[in-house]
Amino acid sequence: MKVLVKSLLGAVALAGLSLPAHAETTLTIPLVNNSDLIRMQKLSDDFTAKNPDIKINWVTLEENVLRQKLTTDIATKGGQFDVLTIGTYEVPIWGKKGWLLPLDKLGADYDVDDLLPAIRGGLSVDGKLYASPFYGESSMVMYRKDLMDKAGLKMPDAPTWDFIREAADKMTDKAGEVYGICLRGKAGWGENMAFLTATANSFGARWFDEKWEPQFNTPEWKKALDFYLSMMKADGPPGAAANGFNENLALFGAGKCGMWIDATVAASFVTDPKQSKVFDKVGFALAPDNGLGKRGNWLWAWSLAVPAGSQKTEAAQKFIAWATSKQYAALVASKEGWANVPPGTRTSLYNNPDYLKAAPFAKMTIDSINSADPLHPTVKPVPYTGVQFVAIPEFQGIANDVGQDFSGALAGTMTGDAALAAAQASTEAAMKKAGYIK
Amino acid sequence: MALKQSMGKRVGMSAAAWLIGFLIFFPILWTFLTSFKSELDAFAIPPKFLFFHWTAENYAEVQSRSNYLLFAYNSIVLSVGANIVGLIIAVPAAWSMAFVPTKRTKDVLMWMLSTKMMPGVGVLVPIYLLFRDFHLLDNRLGIGFVLLMMNLPILIWMLYTYFKEIPVDILEAARMDGASLMNEIVYVLTPMAIPGIASTMLLAVILSWNEAFWTLNLTTSNAAPLTAFIASYSAPEGLFWAKLSAASTLAIAPILILGWFSQKQLVRGLTFGAVK
Q1: What is the pLDDT of residue A6?
Q2: For residue B109, how far is the Cα from the chain centroid?
Q3: Mean pLDDT computed over A258-287
Q4: Fold for the domain defined by B64-271
Q5: Is some CB atom of chain A closer than 8 A to the CB atom of B133?
Q6: Are residues A14 and B45, on separate chains, in Cβ contact within 8 Å?
Q7: Same domain for A343 and A399?
Q8: Does B40 touch chain A (CB under 8 A)?
Q9: How many Cα neighbours within 13 Å face the side chain of B13?
Q10: Angle at Cα B212 formed by Cα B123 and Cα B268, nearest 5°?
């Protein structure tokens, strides 16, 4: 033990000696590995040229690793990051806990009112903005126009679930390895549960009633899950219980899927000749509904926030204002074309004729985002915010468990009814333990 | 055992050995090949083995996006540095346990091994808090210390088994000739145990090189090794398999080359003491 203490002290002493002395402000900024954020890293010379006293230290990580790291850091006040790259799930929770600084120094020309209302609502707590959206995404239907023609159908702009089922049945050609529909099946709160929670909203289901009682025993959930299971069994690809975004992207890009309902960000991949064989045959439509007033699409925005207690708040807000401004959109447009401007954050972008011309998926994206309301996500009232998630800290754990049950039902290891019963039991236990219900 | 084997049997054995070797090596080969494909070719069904359009663009992209040399430098400094310090502690410790055991030596050895049995995540939060308070987060000394503590039980155990094979008489003879304890360890024991020490060191370096849990959690940029470099190319939304393969190839290349050149030592060390 003595040795341990001594070596630790020695290490600390040496660490103290090796701390560099710096006059300029260095911002440590984490990034998620996706094309829009990586592009921002490339273009950041524009920011450092305008602010020569600020240096940026980038940390790129895979989404789930990053989330774990940022959560550990902010919960223990580790102070390793000066700007946080977080989503619509974290912002309301962390904002309420006082872990984030309200963004009130973004500058006079920032134009907060230009932010899309749905996105802004998801990033605010009690009317205060706690994070600025870098790009927003929703989910929508991507489909093969050629297969749709072959089936003798025409995809409406706003399809119903019944139409999707009919189209999936007609497009499926298992002998030719073409599957009518590809959907997420891999277990996880951000995997199958993101899709199923959003889908359940359009079936009139909800996670909790106003008193936080779990609702998996309701007929709405049964209808939603049965619909998903029966369609996937009839028209889905084999082994769908292991498919997430990437697996479906590969299947769709290889021409094996008739339809795929997933994140709007996929549109730029499936229409890219470098990544997709069917790049010139893809059409888009809004996520389906059942005529109940809610569509089955989600809402997410990768956003930038400042941790409370940071010493470099001024430089951090300067950076956030730069990265989420209209000027940044213009910068991307001038260097890489309008189609590459981060989508889904500002109204002005969708009034820009140059953008609308360059991005064929622009209208679908904005309509999808506008139809998702994180403050009123479900048909019946709920005590929570969030469309494809419930913005409470316990949700990740609870939804991972439920995701296992539903993935198991898709794989055929249990029935849909058994999965719902298991989901109800585990969610009830977790909510009791967390003190929401008695 | 007489070595009278028929020609056919020998050819069969060689073929089987090559096949098994190829199977074990295949994932690395596949990663290497994928790193030269375009993203579209990377997930082509059926897979393309050799006949695709070879391109080095993934390497160019990886180079332009991240500072590979800093990550590689950190990996080398951490894995070699931590284990040199480790050997300085482990050689005398293993000497005392092998040659002057006490009643409790076996228990101490077992206790050291037991520290490896606890999953790291169980102590993540306390260690994270300690590191935060001592300003060791994202610091080479901090993460080096963790790697050292992690490998120390393995170093001591492996050295202990090697030292047990060395006849104690030789050490006694040296002592009779007036060698001090220090001289005995440095000039008599160490040279005889070089293969064992080398393979222990190599194994420990490889373990530190591949350690991803602590390095990912306790470092961010300045002290981040190649594990963090690989993690920055993985993505749940977007197929970047070719780029990820290029990053992986770059990350394993140094340790693969080291292993290739020292394979004789490695094999000799791993089988050292296998025949009693």
Answers
A1: 55
A2: 22
A3: 89
A4: MetI-like fold (1.10.3720)
A5: no
A6: no
A7: no
A8: yes
A9: 6
A10: 110
